[in-house]
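To the wet lab folks,

You asked to see what we're planning to order before we commit. Fair enough. Below is the target structure as tokens, and below that is the sequence we designed to fit it. If anything looks off to you, flag it before the synthesis order goes out.
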């Protein structure tokens, strides 16, 4: 198992933010956490990365996150935060190369093989055209691709991504999702992501956990979880769930009747 989360509970001060959350991510498996703003999705991901005190277990390949050094964790798991920091004065190519750091010997320099991995990632995410730019000057969508590129260069066994496509245009969203999909299906990388794009999620992921107020309230395949009733109950939103000719789900918001033109 790439990741096991068991009875995870996180408190900030006295507030219970995440409560009794349990799920697994296996190799070749893509798991997505969905749920309304403030539900606790990012907190779960940050805790999986060892960034919050918690009760319950977080095991990476059987090892508790609290027993791993930052370097040990980074050799196994890559993380794309919801709001990544972008250091000024660092070119995109060097920023992506930083993903290789956990694999270099202490104080070691990158090898030709590391540079080859970076070149492949830049090509896969179509960012060669701005590889020489300063990361702090990129547009939101360009930066999001650079951050994902750095995570891919890390060649993790588990990729943890917090709303990875939120700043991307339609074509880039699909490109990034296809790239992640191929890592998962062809290379066995486990994926744990969060998203608000339910239609896109339904096309790619294996398992969806719907989180509301810090608890998992629904789990299953996209078709099992993404029903109009469940979305209404937990997001408080009226949607219509349609099926496109290829069988993909479309989650379409509905205006209330009195407001419709
Ligand atoms: P989501 O990613 O699902 O939108 P978050 O995990 O970011 O939700 O936040 C869950 C809840 O925890 C929210 O109510 C948020 O305000 C609160 N929260 C997040 N970070 C902190 C923090 N550092 N201190 C106190 N409360 C926090
Ligand atoms: Mg969040």
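Sequence we intend to order:
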């Amino acid at each position: 198992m790439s990741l096991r989360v068991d009875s995870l509970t996180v408190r900030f001060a006295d507030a219970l933010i995440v409560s009794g959350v349990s799920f697994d991510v296996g190799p070749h498996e893509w798991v997505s956490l969905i749920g309304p703003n403030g539900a606790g999705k990012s907190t779960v991901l940050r805790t999986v990365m060892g960034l919050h005190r918690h009760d319950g277990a977080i095991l990476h390949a059987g090892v508790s996150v609290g027993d791993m050094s930052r370097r040990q964790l980074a050799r196994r798991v890559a993380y794309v935060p919801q709001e990544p920091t972008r250091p000024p004065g660092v070119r995109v190519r060097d920023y992506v190369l930083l993903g290789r750091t956990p694999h270099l010997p202490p104080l070691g320099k990158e090898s030709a093989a590391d540079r080859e991995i970076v070149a492949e990632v830049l090509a896969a995410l179509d960012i060669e055209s701005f590889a020489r730019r300063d990361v702090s000057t990129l547009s939101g969508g360009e930066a999001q691709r650079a951050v994902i590129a750095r995570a891919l260069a890390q060649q993790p066994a588990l990729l943890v991504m917090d709303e990875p496509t939120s700043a991307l245009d339609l074509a880039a969203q699909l490109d990034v999702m296809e790239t992640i999909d191929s890592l998962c299906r062809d290379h066995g990388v486990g994926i744990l992501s969060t998203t608000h794009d339910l239609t896109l999620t339904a096309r790619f992921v294996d398992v969806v956990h719907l989180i509301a107020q810090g608890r998992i309230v629904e789990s299953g395949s996209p078709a099992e979880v993404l029903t109009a009733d469940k979305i209404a109950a937990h997001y408080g939103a009226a949607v219509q769930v349609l099926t496109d000719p290829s069988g993909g789900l479309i989650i379409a918001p509905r205006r209330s009747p009195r407001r419709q033109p």
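Structural context that might help your review: Residues 12, 17, 35, 37-43 surround adenosine-5'-diphosphate (ligand 1) (CB under 6 Å). The longest helix spans residues 170-187.

Thanks,
Computational group
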